[in-house]
Design goal:
With 293 residues, this protein is of the alpha+beta class. The chain is built from ten helices and 13 strands. A six-stranded antiparallel beta sheet has the order 8-9-11-10-12-13, with helices on both faces. The longest helix is centred in the first third of the chain and has 16 residues. The radius of gyration is 22 Å and the shape is globular. The N and C termini lie far apart (48 Å). 26% of the residues are buried.
């Protein structure tokens, strides 16, 4: 069965399971970096917000032996257990949820169309955009992007929005810099209190490890890091939208080498919607500025 046939049959089965109170269909959805995926959409009639289930993952389960009826049950159960009326409940509450506004970094060129509709601030070849964070279920972080229309509803200027998002992020999703060695130890549960060396590579993200690459926009954190480590200048390597890597500039590597490494990693290891940039950046402690290298 092809993916198209699978999607059509799955939609029919899910529609029967959910009944006439729900609408089930499919659509192409543009995600970060203009990556397009087909998704099954489910919503309650009269509510203009869809819950989406991407067919790429569902089809993989099917070709590995999962029964299509079981996959339909999974969609129906997930819909019933996690559905919330965003139009009626959440949207009305957003102006009173300003402490849940955060920011993240995306690639400017790859998201040109998206940026037409959202307030943003440019940062080198990237852009800072803003979102309401609604928490995390078993597998997904729930976000509502701050659009231009939503910003009008909230009643903030772009500068006020940016300041608020940065304040919230520093308080709730604290920016974090660790040595690569320490982070690997933590991930695998190893002891690392008495390191034989501090390492020359560091990871900047946030405590949640979600959309953490934006931590690099906090100049005071980078300045403190440079002073503590006695580093004059360092390279900033985008790993994904979730983190960046800091490498002391000892004169042994150049931007061309780093860009080649970034391209190889992005094209082979990073999910397309999580690619941040193919450029590298350089921090100068003398000027306190970060620029594309």
């Amino acid at each position: 069965m092809s993916r198209e046939e699978f999607t059509k049959e799955l939609i029919d089965i899910v529609a029967k399971k959910l009944g006439t109170a729900c609408l089930v269909g499919s659509q192409f959805i543009t995600k970060n970096n203009n990556t397009r995926q087909i998704a099954i959409t489910v919503s309650k009639k009269g509510v203009g917000v869809n819950q989406v289930f991407y067919t790429t993952e569902l089809y993989q389960h099917f070709i590995k032996g999962a029964n299509i009826d079981e996959i339909a049950d999974l969609i129906a159960d997930t819909f019933h257990s996690s559905y919330y009326d965003v139009d009626i409940e959440i949207m009305a509450k957003l102006p009173f949820m300003l402490d849940k506004i955060y920011c993240r970094l995306i690639n400017t060129e790859a998201n040109t169309m998206f940026l037409h509709d959202v307030p943003h601030k440019e940062w080198n070849d990237l852009s800072v955009v803003y979102y309401f964070y609604l928490g995390k279920d078993e597998s997904h972080h729930k976000m509502i992007t701050v659009t231009n229309l939503l910003l009008e509803l909230i009643g903030l200027s772009l500068d006020e929005l940016d300041k608020l998002a940065r304040t919230n992020l520093k308080r709730e999703m604290k920016p974090d810099i660790q040595s690569m060695y320490s982070m690997v130890c933590k991930l695998h549960g190893y002891e690392f209190d008495a390191l034989p060396f501090d390492g020359s590579m560091y990871v900047i993200t946030n405590e949640s490890r979600f959309n953490g690459a934006v931590s690099v926009v906090f100049e005071d954190i980078l300045e403190k890091f440079a002073l503590q480590k006695g580093i004059q200048d360092f390279w900033i390597i985008p790993s994904s939208i979730h983190e960046m890597i800091l490498v002391a500039d000892d004169g042994m590597m150049d931007s061309k080498t780093f860009r080649s490494m970034i391209r190889e990693v992005n094209d082979s290891l990073v999910a397309p919607e999580e690619v941040l940039s193919y450029n590298c950046y350089r921090y100068s402690s003398k000027s306190g500025l970060i620029s594309v290298a």
